[in-house]
Design goal:
binds 5'-O-[(R)-(carboxyoxy)(hydroxy)phosphoryl]adenosine, binds zinc ion, five-stranded mixed sheet, alpha/beta, Nucleotidyltransferase, domain 5
Length: about 325
Protein backbone atom coordinates (compact mmCIF):
# COMPACT_ATOMS: atom_id res chain seq x y z
CA UNK A 1 0.00 0.00 0.00
CA UNK A 2 1.39 3.40 -1.06
CA UNK A 3 0.32 6.20 1.27
CA UNK A 4 0.51 9.98 0.86
CA UNK A 5 1.12 11.65 4.24
CA UNK A 6 0.42 15.31 4.99
CA UNK A 7 1.63 17.30 8.00
CA UNK A 8 0.64 20.88 8.90
CA UNK A 9 0.20 20.97 12.69
CA UNK A 10 2.73 23.69 13.48
CA UNK A 11 5.26 25.54 11.30
CA UNK A 12 6.22 22.85 8.77
CA UNK A 13 4.15 22.19 5.65
CA UNK A 14 5.17 18.67 4.71
CA UNK A 15 4.13 15.85 2.38
CA UNK A 16 5.62 12.41 1.88
CA UNK A 17 4.92 9.17 0.08
CA UNK A 18 5.66 5.92 1.92
CA UNK A 19 5.25 2.42 0.50
CA UNK A 20 6.16 -1.15 1.45
CA UNK A 21 9.84 -0.50 0.64
CA UNK A 22 10.04 2.66 2.72
CA UNK A 23 10.04 6.39 2.04
CA UNK A 24 9.60 7.29 -1.65
CA UNK A 25 9.60 11.07 -1.11
CA UNK A 26 9.84 13.41 1.87
CA UNK A 27 9.21 17.13 1.25
CA UNK A 28 9.35 19.62 4.13
CA UNK A 29 8.80 23.35 3.84
CA UNK A 30 9.74 25.17 7.07
CA UNK A 31 8.01 28.51 7.54
CA UNK A 32 10.64 31.22 8.07
CA UNK A 33 8.19 33.97 8.95
CA UNK A 34 7.94 33.15 12.69
CA UNK A 35 11.62 33.92 13.40
CA UNK A 36 11.01 37.65 13.62
CA UNK A 37 8.25 37.12 16.24
CA UNK A 38 10.28 34.77 18.47
CA UNK A 39 7.69 31.98 18.25
CA UNK A 40 5.02 30.49 16.01
CA UNK A 41 2.16 32.91 15.24
CA UNK A 42 -0.90 30.66 14.66
CA UNK A 43 -2.67 32.83 12.08
CA UNK A 44 0.51 33.31 10.04
CA UNK A 45 1.16 29.56 10.23
CA UNK A 46 -2.32 28.81 8.85
CA UNK A 47 -1.89 31.28 5.99
CA UNK A 48 1.55 29.95 5.09
CA UNK A 49 0.22 26.36 5.06
CA UNK A 50 -2.59 27.45 2.73
CA UNK A 51 0.03 29.02 0.42
CA UNK A 52 2.30 25.97 0.31
CA UNK A 53 0.05 22.92 0.65
CA UNK A 54 -0.63 22.39 -3.07
CA UNK A 55 2.98 22.76 -4.23
CA UNK A 56 4.30 20.62 -1.34
CA UNK A 57 1.90 17.73 -2.02
CA UNK A 58 2.54 18.00 -5.79
CA UNK A 59 6.30 17.83 -5.19
CA UNK A 60 5.96 14.76 -2.95
CA UNK A 61 3.89 12.90 -5.57
CA UNK A 62 6.25 13.89 -8.38
CA UNK A 63 9.40 12.89 -6.50
CA UNK A 64 7.79 9.54 -5.63
CA UNK A 65 6.91 9.09 -9.31
CA UNK A 66 3.21 8.50 -8.68
CA UNK A 67 0.03 10.30 -9.71
CA UNK A 68 -2.32 8.76 -7.18
CA UNK A 69 -1.59 7.02 -3.85
CA UNK A 70 -3.56 4.02 -2.50
CA UNK A 71 -4.59 6.04 0.59
CA UNK A 72 -4.14 9.45 2.21
CA UNK A 73 -3.04 10.10 5.83
CA UNK A 74 -3.09 13.60 7.30
CA UNK A 75 -2.29 14.97 10.74
CA UNK A 76 -5.60 15.56 12.58
CA UNK A 77 -3.99 16.91 15.78
CA UNK A 78 -2.74 17.78 18.28
CA UNK A 79 -1.56 21.18 17.10
CA UNK A 80 -2.59 24.69 16.16
CA UNK A 81 -6.14 24.15 15.01
CA UNK A 82 -6.05 26.55 12.05
CA UNK A 83 -2.81 24.96 10.89
CA UNK A 84 -4.02 21.36 11.34
CA UNK A 85 -7.21 22.15 9.39
CA UNK A 86 -5.29 23.14 6.25
CA UNK A 87 -3.56 19.76 5.80
CA UNK A 88 -6.48 17.75 7.17
CA UNK A 89 -9.07 19.31 4.85
CA UNK A 90 -6.71 19.08 1.89
CA UNK A 91 -6.02 15.41 2.69
CA UNK A 92 -9.71 14.53 3.03
CA UNK A 93 -10.57 16.35 -0.20
CA UNK A 94 -7.73 14.63 -2.09
CA UNK A 95 -8.79 11.19 -0.77
CA UNK A 96 -12.42 11.87 -1.76
CA UNK A 97 -11.34 13.12 -5.21
CA UNK A 98 -9.16 10.08 -5.86
CA UNK A 99 -11.72 7.73 -4.27
CA UNK A 100 -9.11 6.23 -1.90
CA UNK A 101 -9.27 5.59 1.89
CA UNK A 102 -8.43 8.37 4.34
CA UNK A 103 -7.01 8.29 7.86
CA UNK A 104 -6.46 11.14 10.34
CA UNK A 105 -3.17 10.65 12.21
CA UNK A 106 -2.11 11.73 15.68
CA UNK A 107 1.03 13.86 15.22
CA UNK A 108 2.53 12.48 18.46
CA UNK A 109 1.94 8.93 17.30
CA UNK A 110 3.87 9.89 14.15
CA UNK A 111 6.81 11.01 16.33
CA UNK A 112 6.66 8.03 18.67
CA UNK A 113 6.78 5.55 15.77
CA UNK A 114 9.43 7.54 13.81
CA UNK A 115 12.25 5.07 14.41
CA UNK A 116 10.14 2.23 12.98
CA UNK A 117 10.06 3.78 9.48
CA UNK A 118 13.41 2.12 8.74
CA UNK A 119 13.48 -1.69 8.57
CA UNK A 120 16.25 -1.53 11.21
CA UNK A 121 13.82 0.22 13.62
CA UNK A 122 12.78 -1.18 17.00
CA UNK A 123 10.28 -4.03 17.28
CA UNK A 124 7.45 -3.77 19.85
CA UNK A 125 7.58 -3.41 22.80
CA UNK A 126 9.81 -0.35 23.12
CA UNK A 127 10.07 2.85 25.13
CA UNK A 128 9.59 6.02 23.11
CA UNK A 129 10.50 9.44 24.46
CA UNK A 130 8.75 12.17 22.45
CA UNK A 131 10.42 15.52 23.07
CA UNK A 132 9.21 18.39 20.93
CA UNK A 133 8.37 22.07 21.20
CA UNK A 134 4.90 21.36 22.57
CA UNK A 135 5.18 17.90 24.18
CA UNK A 136 7.46 15.86 26.40
CA UNK A 137 6.14 12.37 27.13
CA UNK A 138 7.63 8.95 27.70
CA UNK A 139 5.54 6.12 26.23
CA UNK A 140 5.59 2.37 26.44
CA UNK A 141 4.63 1.24 22.92
CA UNK A 142 3.36 -2.35 22.82
CA UNK A 143 1.76 -2.36 19.37
CA UNK A 144 0.18 -0.01 16.83
CA UNK A 145 -2.23 2.13 18.85
CA UNK A 146 -1.19 0.51 22.16
CA UNK A 147 0.61 3.23 24.05
CA UNK A 148 0.87 3.91 27.78
CA UNK A 149 2.10 7.28 29.05
CA UNK A 150 4.70 6.42 31.72
CA UNK A 151 5.56 10.03 32.47
CA UNK A 152 5.19 13.50 30.99
CA UNK A 153 6.10 17.08 31.71
CA UNK A 154 3.83 18.85 34.17
CA UNK A 155 4.74 22.28 32.81
CA UNK A 156 7.06 23.33 29.92
CA UNK A 157 8.01 20.93 27.13
CA UNK A 158 11.74 20.28 26.77
CA UNK A 159 11.84 22.07 23.38
CA UNK A 160 9.95 25.01 24.87
CA UNK A 161 12.63 25.26 27.58
CA UNK A 162 15.33 25.29 24.86
CA UNK A 163 13.43 28.01 23.01
CA UNK A 164 12.96 30.12 26.17
CA UNK A 165 16.62 29.88 27.19
CA UNK A 166 17.63 30.77 23.62
CA UNK A 167 15.37 33.82 23.81
CA UNK A 168 17.02 34.94 27.07
CA UNK A 169 20.36 34.79 25.24
CA UNK A 170 19.00 36.42 22.04
CA UNK A 171 19.84 33.37 19.96
CA UNK A 172 16.72 33.58 17.75
CA UNK A 173 13.87 31.13 17.10
CA UNK A 174 13.77 28.13 17.10
CA UNK A 175 16.29 28.09 19.90
CA UNK A 176 17.15 24.39 20.17
CA UNK A 177 19.60 24.17 17.27
CA UNK A 178 21.36 27.42 18.36
CA UNK A 179 21.73 26.21 21.97
CA UNK A 180 22.98 22.85 20.67
CA UNK A 181 25.68 24.58 18.55
CA UNK A 182 26.85 26.99 21.26
CA UNK A 183 26.88 24.27 23.95
CA UNK A 184 29.67 22.45 22.06
CA UNK A 185 32.07 25.25 23.07
CA UNK A 186 30.88 25.46 26.68
CA UNK A 187 31.55 23.80 30.04
CA UNK A 188 28.48 21.80 31.21
CA UNK A 189 29.69 21.98 34.84
CA UNK A 190 30.14 25.77 34.94
CA UNK A 191 26.59 26.76 36.02
CA UNK A 192 25.00 24.69 38.80
CA UNK A 193 21.42 24.00 37.74
CA UNK A 194 18.69 21.82 39.29
CA UNK A 195 17.37 18.50 37.90
CA UNK A 196 13.78 19.18 39.06
CA UNK A 197 11.43 16.37 40.06
CA UNK A 198 7.80 17.58 40.03
CA UNK A 199 6.14 17.40 43.43
CA UNK A 200 2.65 18.39 42.50
CA UNK A 201 0.84 17.74 39.26
CA UNK A 202 -1.96 20.06 38.21
CA UNK A 203 -5.28 18.16 38.00
CA UNK A 204 -5.63 18.54 34.25
CA UNK A 205 -2.75 17.26 32.10
CA UNK A 206 -2.48 16.51 28.37
CA UNK A 207 -3.07 12.78 28.93
CA UNK A 208 -5.72 13.44 31.61
CA UNK A 209 -3.71 11.67 34.31
CA UNK A 210 -4.46 12.61 37.93
CA UNK A 211 -1.67 12.78 40.50
CA UNK A 212 2.08 12.87 40.01
CA UNK A 213 3.89 9.82 38.67
CA UNK A 214 7.53 9.06 39.51
CA UNK A 215 8.54 9.38 35.86
CA UNK A 216 6.94 12.81 35.37
CA UNK A 217 9.19 15.74 34.48
CA UNK A 218 9.32 19.48 35.02
CA UNK A 219 11.34 22.04 33.08
CA UNK A 220 9.96 25.42 34.15
CA UNK A 221 12.15 25.56 37.31
CA UNK A 222 15.22 24.89 35.21
CA UNK A 223 14.40 27.80 32.91
CA UNK A 224 13.85 30.04 35.98
CA UNK A 225 17.21 28.93 37.40
CA UNK A 226 18.89 29.93 34.13
CA UNK A 227 17.22 33.36 34.30
CA UNK A 228 18.34 33.80 37.93
CA UNK A 229 21.90 32.94 36.93
CA UNK A 230 21.86 35.43 34.05
CA UNK A 231 20.69 38.18 36.41
CA UNK A 232 23.24 37.23 39.09
CA UNK A 233 26.74 38.56 39.75
CA UNK A 234 28.83 35.64 38.43
CA UNK A 235 27.46 35.36 34.90
CA UNK A 236 29.02 32.60 32.84
CA UNK A 237 29.62 32.87 29.08
CA UNK A 238 26.67 32.12 26.77
CA UNK A 239 28.40 28.90 25.71
CA UNK A 240 28.76 27.75 29.34
CA UNK A 241 25.11 28.63 30.07
CA UNK A 242 23.96 26.63 27.02
CA UNK A 243 26.17 23.64 27.89
CA UNK A 244 25.05 23.61 31.55
CA UNK A 245 21.36 23.97 30.65
CA UNK A 246 21.54 21.32 27.94
CA UNK A 247 23.32 18.93 30.33
CA UNK A 248 20.51 19.38 32.89
CA UNK A 249 17.80 18.60 30.29
CA UNK A 250 19.71 15.59 28.98
CA UNK A 251 20.27 14.29 32.53
CA UNK A 252 16.52 14.48 33.32
CA UNK A 253 15.51 12.78 30.05
CA UNK A 254 18.05 9.94 30.22
CA UNK A 255 17.22 9.42 33.91
CA UNK A 256 13.54 8.84 33.04
CA UNK A 257 14.33 6.45 30.18
CA UNK A 258 16.71 4.43 32.37
CA UNK A 259 14.19 4.21 35.21
CA UNK A 260 11.36 3.30 32.80
CA UNK A 261 13.48 0.44 31.42
CA UNK A 262 14.15 -0.80 34.95
CA UNK A 263 10.48 -0.58 35.92
CA UNK A 264 8.98 -2.13 32.79
CA UNK A 265 11.78 -4.56 31.91
CA UNK A 266 11.62 -3.20 28.32
CA UNK A 267 15.22 -2.67 27.25
CA UNK A 268 14.59 -1.14 23.79
CA UNK A 269 14.23 2.63 23.53
CA UNK A 270 13.97 5.41 21.00
CA UNK A 271 13.70 9.21 21.07
CA UNK A 272 11.71 11.37 18.66
CA UNK A 273 10.52 14.95 18.21
CA UNK A 274 12.61 18.05 17.51
CA UNK A 275 14.74 17.78 20.67
CA UNK A 276 15.79 14.26 19.58
CA UNK A 277 17.93 16.08 16.98
CA UNK A 278 20.06 17.41 19.89
CA UNK A 279 23.62 16.11 19.59
CA UNK A 280 24.21 15.70 23.31
CA UNK A 281 20.90 13.91 23.92
CA UNK A 282 21.67 11.53 21.03
CA UNK A 283 25.15 10.77 22.40
CA UNK A 284 23.82 10.28 25.95
CA UNK A 285 21.03 7.97 24.76
CA UNK A 286 23.50 5.89 22.74
CA UNK A 287 25.71 5.56 25.82
CA UNK A 288 22.89 4.00 27.90
CA UNK A 289 23.03 0.28 28.56
CA UNK A 290 19.91 -0.22 26.49
CA UNK A 291 19.16 -1.13 22.90
CA UNK A 292 18.74 2.45 21.63
CA UNK A 293 17.61 3.12 18.05
CA UNK A 294 17.44 6.77 17.01
CA UNK A 295 15.66 8.07 13.93
CA UNK A 296 17.89 10.17 11.64
CA UNK A 297 17.95 13.88 12.59
CA UNK A 298 15.73 14.85 9.63
CA UNK A 299 12.99 12.53 10.95
CA UNK A 300 13.10 14.05 14.47
CA UNK A 301 11.75 17.49 13.58
CA UNK A 302 8.30 17.68 12.00
CA UNK A 303 7.93 15.79 8.74
CA UNK A 304 5.24 13.96 6.81
CA UNK A 305 7.08 10.63 6.39
CA UNK A 306 6.20 9.85 10.02
CA UNK A 307 2.54 10.71 9.34
CA UNK A 308 2.40 8.57 6.17
CA UNK A 309 4.10 5.72 8.06
CA UNK A 310 1.85 5.84 11.17
CA UNK A 311 -1.24 6.18 8.94
CA UNK A 312 -0.08 3.28 6.79
CA UNK A 313 0.38 1.00 9.82
CA UNK A 314 -3.17 1.77 10.92
CA UNK A 315 -4.61 1.42 7.40
CA UNK A 316 -2.91 -1.99 7.13
CA UNK A 317 -4.86 -3.20 10.18
CA UNK A 318 -8.09 -2.03 8.55
CA UNK A 319 -8.64 1.38 10.11
CA UNK A 320 -10.30 4.10 8.05
CA UNK A 321 -11.76 7.50 8.94
CA UNK A 322 -14.77 9.18 7.43
CA UNK A 323 -14.66 12.68 6.01
CA UNK A 324 -16.30 13.89 9.24
CA UNK A 325 -13.01 13.31 11.06
CA UNK A 326 -12.34 16.65 12.75
CA UNK A 327 -9.18 18.45 13.85
CA UNK A 328 -8.17 18.29 17.51
CA UNK A 329 -6.03 20.73 19.47
CA UNK A 330 -5.39 18.11 22.20
CA UNK A 331 -5.16 14.37 21.57
CA UNK A 332 -3.33 11.65 23.50
CA UNK A 333 -1.89 9.00 21.14
CA UNK A 334 -3.69 5.67 21.33
CA UNK A 335 -7.00 7.32 22.29
CA UNK A 336 -9.51 6.99 19.45
O1 LIG B 1 8.94 18.21 16.71
P1 LIG B 1 9.18 19.63 16.38
O2 LIG B 1 9.83 19.95 15.05
O3 LIG B 1 7.84 20.46 16.43
C1 LIG B 1 6.87 20.24 17.40
O4 LIG B 1 6.02 19.33 17.19
O5 LIG B 1 6.95 20.97 18.42
O6 LIG B 1 10.06 20.24 17.57
C2 LIG B 1 10.47 21.58 17.59
C3 LIG B 1 11.28 21.82 18.85
C4 LIG B 1 11.66 23.28 19.05
O7 LIG B 1 11.39 23.61 20.41
C5 LIG B 1 13.15 23.30 18.77
O8 LIG B 1 13.85 24.31 19.49
C6 LIG B 1 13.57 21.92 19.20
O9 LIG B 1 12.53 21.08 18.78
N1 LIG B 1 14.84 21.49 18.59
C7 LIG B 1 15.96 21.22 19.28
C8 LIG B 1 16.95 20.91 18.32
N2 LIG B 1 16.39 20.97 17.08
C9 LIG B 1 15.08 21.33 17.26
N3 LIG B 1 16.21 21.24 20.60
C10 LIG B 1 17.46 20.94 21.00
N4 LIG B 1 18.48 20.63 20.15
C11 LIG B 1 18.28 20.61 18.81
N5 LIG B 1 19.28 20.31 17.98
ZN1 LIG C 1 6.22 17.57 16.23
Amino acid sequence: MIVLGIESSCDETAASVVGPDGVLSDVVHTQEIHGEYGGVVPELAGRAHADKIVSTVAAALERAGIERPDAVAATAGPGLIGAVLVGLCFGKAAAAGWGVPFIGVNHLEGHLLSATIEPTGPAFPFLSLVVSGGHTSLYLAEGVGEYTVLGETVDDAAGEAFDKVARMLNLGYPGGPAVDRLAREGDPQRVKLPRPQPKQRPPKTPSGHQGTRPLDMSFSGLKTAVRAHLEGPDRASDADVCASFQQAVVDVLTNRVTRAARETGVMRATVAGGVAANSQLRAAMEALELDVILPPRSRCTDNAAMIAHAGRLRLLIGERHGLDRSARAQWTPGVL
